[in-house]
Amino acid sequence: MAIYSRYSRNSNQTTQSAPSPMNFSDDEIDLMQVFGVLWFQKWKIIAIAVLITVLGAGYAITSTPIYQANGMVEFTNSKNQVLGDLSDIVGGIQKTPADSEVDMIKSRRVLGKTVRDLNLHIGIMPEISHWVKLKQFISRTESPNINMMQPEVVVAQFRLPEYLYDKSFKLRVLSPTTFSLLTPTKQNYTGSVGVPLKIGQDGELIVEKIVAEPNQEFDLTHYSGLTSIENINKNLNVAPKSKNSPMIGLTLNGTNPTLIQTILNQIMQNYAAENRNKDIQAASNGLRFIDEELPRLKNVLQEAENALNAYRAQSGSVDVPQEAKGVLESLNKIEMQLVDLRTEQAVLNEVYTREHPSQKALRDKIQILNESKAKLNNQITKMPSMQQDIIRLTRNVEINQGIYVQLLSKQQELNILKASSEGNVRIIDSAATPPKPIKPKKLIIVLLAGVIGLLFGSGFYLIKSFINQGIHDEDEIEALGLDVIVSIPISHSQQKRDSALKRFSKKKYVRSNSMLVLKDPTDIAVEALRALRTNLFFSSMSAVNKVIMISGATPEVGKSFVAANLAVLMAQAGKKVLLIDGDMRKGYMHHLLSMPSSEGFAEILASSDTQYTHNIWKTNLAGLHFVSGGNTPKNPSELLLNKKIEKFLVWADAHYDYVVLDTPPILAVTDAAVMGQYAGIRLLVSRFGRTSLRELDACVSRFEAGNVRINGVILNGVERSAKNYYSYDAYNEKYGKYGVHQKSQRIS
């Protein structure tokens, strides 16, 4: 096809721009591009997903399993008949029974006793690496019936001063009967099983048993009381089975299934015992009050009986009037009620403060009864004097006698309650630990890791595609109105040689020093260059001359690679070719051809001599001559403004079949715009995935400013991508070998 560009612009025409791959600035994201990126990167995404899944599986395998012990108790909110209506008074102002019992189970009173009963203030954990856990898992997988014994050290006593509470000690097993202990202050002690080990002035450790290999380490900690309780509380869950249900469920999580079962059983037993002790304590308080009152009441009753008998002996037999009997009976009832309330008050004094609502309610009842008692006494004062005396004496005897009998009865009842109280809590289900841990959920973790891996891999490559704004397809270039002459696939063999050169070079910045067309003539990139050569052979027939300018937007797009290899291919086709390194600042083509860099293009432009042959080098390849960039001049741009370049290129066009002119990057300096004015064919090299459409558009603008029109674009370094996934395979063909060796020789 012809390489003359369709690209045109004027002041009244807006340049069409193609969207960059996966550009966030677009109003919509092309779903086909998204699917294309995911499909193209599918194996890498799958590899990432597999890697993260393996990591998730490793975590699931090596994570310490967490077990859960469970149990259930029943709480019945029954009244205490012995203590009268005390539970009614208290129950009216308390929380619901279930809530109160949950709080009681999780209280420091119950959990603290559990800690003391089981020595839970001593914490000792073996240090097991993830690698050891993995080996144990593999062993269990290969032999499921084998029980893997965990290392264990049993501590009978661990006493420390308070300032060492909650600090970690390191216990290392030396033998089945000896161990060493490293304190937080880096002091080292050595001890034996069953022998008390003195730690400082106030500390002592007694190890009861060791079941572990030598050098196995343990973390040993003496927790404070509050810390021990908190360690249980954060793993303990207590809740009613349903609303208003008397059943309360308990669960406890931990790494040791046997230990958590023991702890939960102890918690339930201590809770039930605390509930029983509450009734026993109430009975004890009532008994103490009665025991204090009975001797006094007995004396009062004796005195009242003596006084009544003496009055009757003195005054004769006097009966209580009928109207006074009703008053006397009412007084007796009030006194009995007051005795009951004072007994209840004695119990409440041990439980609540004076300002508690239960205490206030009881005092209000006592006050009402005392007011009623005062009214009855006032009625008695209005009776005749003799009747008042007999009523008063009889009342004293009957009331004290009734109180005394009532207290004796209550004393017996409270003694029975104290001896036989079972409380109102019953353990329904003792603690049990299922053999299967509740976490980690290994299957869920592995599946979740796989999903996260897929999402991470997909997101990574989508974001990478969003960020990469380089050209990925010929259509993007053609949308600017430019022809793509050829797409050159990336050469992996060239990449390997360049990478090896960088590894063995001491220089920080290293460029290629080999010609691909000579090193690997069957490479697919070389075949693409052959297609370019053929295209140029036909297209140059209608060009004003056969000077081919090759430029690029920025360094490292491969313009020198294209120019040098193209010149060699033309020479191999039997053409006489002159290759010119037009970069007088940083030209390096002489490295590719192993030629001297002096006496080159800069010297031709600076000299008035029209004999150019002494600045032209002949290579060993027939038909290929070379002009280096020469010694860097002070004013490269000014040298290009004289007519010497035109004369030289006219001379070259007359003496050679083709002249290949490699120029500096157009966006760096304007040299290429000047040189392009004398070239019959002007080509731009863009780098796949690196050169952006903006840079390419800016290149064309620079050339147009110098009245130079670009004839076509070479897309270099094409890799397989989501956009060219299928078309890329068309380049994958191998051709025959071409072998040549170079040797520099000056033209005579």
TrEMBL record:
Annotated TM spans = 43-62, 443-463
Species whose genome carries this gene: Simonsiella muelleri ATCC 29453
Identify the residues that the record assigns to the AAA domain, covering every copy: 546-671
Q: Point out the coiled-coil segments of this chain.
A: 287-314
Region ranges (Disordered): 1-22
* MF terms in GO: ATP binding; identical protein binding; protein tyrosine kinase activity
Q: Which residues form the Tyrosine-protein kinase G-rich domain?
A: 386-465
Q: Where is the composition biased (Polar residues)?
A: 7-22
In terms of Pfam families, this protein maps to: AAA_31, GNVR, WZC_N, Wzz
Name listed for the protein in its UniProt record:
Putative tyrosine-protein kinase EpsB
Q: What does this protein do?
A: Probably involved in polymerization and/or export of exopolysaccharide EPS I which functions as a virulence factor. May be involved in an ATP-dependent process in the pathway for EPS I production, possibly export of the trimeric repeat units across the inner membrane or their polymerization.
What InterPro entries does the database record attribute to this sequence?
AAA_dom (IPR025669), Bact_polysacc_biosynth/exp (IPR050445), GNVR (IPR032807), LPS_length_determ_N (IPR003856), P-loop_NTPase (IPR027417), Wzc-like_C (IPR005702)
Identify the taxonomic lineage of the organism of origin: Bacteria, Pseudomonadati, Pseudomonadota, Betaproteobacteria, Neisseriales
Q: Which GO terms describe its biological process?
A: polysaccharide biosynthetic process
